[in-house]
Each structure stands twice: as C-alpha cells, then as structure tokens.
Design goal:
- There is one protein chain.
- This protein has 276 residues and is an alpha/beta fold.
- Helices cover 53% and strands 11% of the residues.
- The protein has 2 domains: 78 residues, Arc Repressor Mutant, subunit A (Orthogonal Bundle), CATH 1.10.10.10; 145 residues, Rossmann fold, CATH 3.40.50.
- A 5-stranded parallel β-sheet has the order 2-1-3-4-5, sandwiched between helices.
- Helix 8 packs parallel to helix 12.
Length: 276
C-alpha cells in the first residue's frame, strides 16, 4: 500500500529577473557548442569580471580565437550580437558589486577563519536565482517520488537532503552514483518523479545519461552543482549552480551544503502554507 504523503501548496514565485541569465544560457547550450565556443564559455564563466569591459576583439585575443567566432558565440546563445552579451555580463558584474564585501580578519584564529568562510559562502550564494530556488522547492512539493543521487563528495549531502525531506513528509530516497545504482534507477524515472543530482566534482557518463533518460521519460530534473558547466548541470532541466567569481574562487562542500539547507527551508515554508 502506497504511503500517503502530505500535499504542500506551491510557493508564490516573485516577478524577479534572474541575474544568472547568461550563465544559464551557457549551461544549456554547452553540450552543443563547438570546441572554440566551449573555450569562450569556459573563459566567461570563470572570468566574467575581466570580460565585462572587453571588446569582441580583446575577448577573442584572450582565448586565442578570431573576432568572428566571438560574435557567432553570442548569437549561438540567442543574443542579438556581442553588445547584448556584454550588457548581460555587466549586469552580472553589477550584481557582484552590489553584494556586501567580505572582509578578511586580521587574526588567524580558528574563529576568525570560520567567520571569513561564512562571509565567502554568503557571497557565493548571491549567484543563485531566487526564482530557480523557489521553482525547485515547488517541484519537491509536487513530486510523488524524489530520487537524490550524490556523486563524489555530494554523496553524503544527498543522504542528508533525503533525510531532511523525509522529515517534511516528502517521499525521498538517496542513491549513490555508481553504475549499478544508476541503471537500477532508470525504470523508476517517470512523470511523477523528480531526479536531483548533487555534484561537487568530476562526473561519469552514466550520471549524465541518467539525467537525460529522466528528462526523456518526463521526470523533472534538478542539479545542485558547484559549477554550471558540470555535465549534470548541462543535462538537467533546472540547475542551482554556484559559478566561481574568478579562476581561484573556492566552491566547496560547505557552500553546496548551505544551498541545500536553503532549499529544504523553502520547502518547509511551503509546508506551513494552508492548502487552497
């Protein structure tokens, strides 16, 4: 007999303009990009602050390509041209500058380092679209079965997330990303299911195939990833990603864990709302 899980109402999605539009376009288009276009995409994701005031010619020089390739890349992302792409990059930079600055403590005590780390995490999380976060929470509320697959360091986070969602009454199961588990899960990915992939490192082809199979079967697919160009992020319908604010930016387990906690809290808020 199927367990009766409580129904939670949808959270109201605010009319917010996502500041991650550029990064989401890159994520979705990446699998179909040419090798040259992928070089541009890789550069922009990690160095958009530098690219914000580059001409098409200077951006081309930075990745050793020609200017025409840069223009075609912008059009491939459905921008009218390079100027429209640059405006989007500048919007992203403006968002970064509007965030409260993180100031390092002069002392090197354990408490000081913890405080610095918390501030860094908060700054990274400003890149997450509020609309996408609430959409993901609604999906969790709507789905009859939730499968959470954790890869690498994300395996433990997947287990913790499943436990928290079960506490809220959501039917959740955590699985590892090994080949056997992935293949056993595939027949269960139907229109009633939600597949969540938690990824913080390198991935396998099986994981991307799982996300693709789930989408083809009509299941909702969500990636929670430390980078928008991980394969799971490219293969899923929705991604809560944490783009690095520079080539040396650190996105680790703690940042992804806080993001997951925020998603669980959004679901908990939905559970408290009266059903219509």
């Amino acid at each position: 007999m199927r367990a009766a899980f409580p129904v939670c109402p949808k959270l109201i999605l605010p009319a917010l303009r996502s500041h991650t539009t550029l990064l989401d376009r890159v994520r979705r288009a990446y699998p179909e990009l040419t090798e040259s276009q992928r070089r541009l995409a890789d550069y922009l994701v990690s160095n958009y602050r530098d690219a914000a005031f580059m001409t098409a010619s200077k951006l081309a020089d930075a990745v050793d390509l020609n200017e025409a390739t840069v223009v075609r890349f912008a059009q491939r992302l459905d921008y009218a041209g390079y100027p429209a792409l640059v405006r989007e990059i500048r919007d992203l930079l403006q968002h970064d500058l509007a965030a409260p600055p993180t100031e390092a403590h002069s002392d090197n005590t354990p408490l000081g380092r913890i405080t610095d780390r918390v501030a860094q995490i908060a700054q990274h999380l400003t890149h997450v679209s509020p609309t996408d976060l609430l959409t993901a929470a609604n999906w969790i509320c709507e789905s009859r079965r939730i499968y959470i697959v954790g890869h690498g360091g994300g395996a433990g986070l997947a287990v913790a997330m499943a436990q928290e969602l079960m506490r809220l009454g959501r039917p959740s199961l955590a699985l590892s990303a090994d080949m056997v588990s992935v293949r056993q899960l595939m027949p269960h990915l139907t229109v009633e299911a939600l597949l969540i992939v938690v990824s913080v490192g390198t991935e396998t082809a099986d994981l991307r195939a799982l996300a693709g199979r789930a989408r083809n079967a009509g299941a909702k697919t969500l990636a929670i990833a430390r980078h928008p160009l991980l394969e799971s992020a490219q293969a899923t319908e929705l991604c809560l990603c944490l783009p690095p604010a520079g080539p040396r930016a650190r996105i680790d387990l703690s940042t992804v864990a806080v993001l997951i906690d925020g998603l669980v809290l959004a679901c908990e808020d939905a559970m408290r709302r009266p059903t219509s």
